[in-house]
Amino acid sequence: MGNVIENVMKLKNMSELMVDLAYSAVFLRDKRISEEVVKMQKQVDTVMADTLKHIFKVRGSEDQQVRMVEFIDYITDITKTTAHMAQLVQKGSIPDYMKDILSETDKRVMTFDVKKGSALANKSVGKSVVRSRTGANIISVRRGEEWIFSIDKETVLKAGDMVVVVGNKESESLLKKFADGRIKGV
Predict the structure, then answer these.
(1) CB 143 within 8 A of CB 160
(2) What DSSP letter does each residue of 105-118 carry, written as one string?
(3) Are residues 18 and 90 in the same domain?
(4) Last residue of a domain, which of 38, 69, 100?
């Protein structure tokens, strides 16, 4: 049952991140973020199919299997909705009132790429002092096609990583400067 549990946790983490990113894409009208959500939907579909195969191979009660399939179905509904939101951003068909509703909060989910030569490259989250210098919290990292959700002070950021953070508008400006190397020291 290890693969099933690992996959379900991955699906849960991905769906939570997709919700955050989709709302941020709508709020910021950011096509790059919306593209990430659509890409993640494809990954979710793959993990979901693999998980469903494993569920029916695992010994357990039929009731447990049904509950697990229902849970995966709920996650799938969430991710499909977020992918639909992202596609609306890509088409430029987000109503203005949506942005007005989302602008009530100062917090936002943002992404940035760690560039080679960045003050963040090859530093752990703890040593990068992102939180204390910018007020933003790193919630996940995409390295290649793989997502890292368990971020702690020992997680090392590398050039080429796409980092997802929660912060405010001021955080966004500072983070981009750190990430692209315009601010050298941390």
Answers:
(1) yes
(2) -S-EEEEEEPPTT-
(3) yes
(4) 100
φ/ψ of residue 126, rounded to 5? -60, -45
Q: Structure tokens of 80?
A: 């499909």
pLDDT in tens, 108-138: 788 888 888 888 889 898 888 788 888 888 9
pLDDT, tens digit, for every residue of 151-178?
999 999 999 999 998 888 788 778 877 7
pTM: 0.72
Query: Can you read off the two tokens belonging to residue 99?
Result: 């942005």
Say yes or no: 73 and 14 in one domain: yes
pLDDT over threshold 70, residue 65: yes
Domain that holds residue 162: 106-180
Domain count, the chain: 2
3-state secondary structure of 96: helix
Local confidence band at 38 (pLDDT 50, 70, 90 cut-offs): very high
Give bridge partners of residue 112 from the DSSP assignment: 163
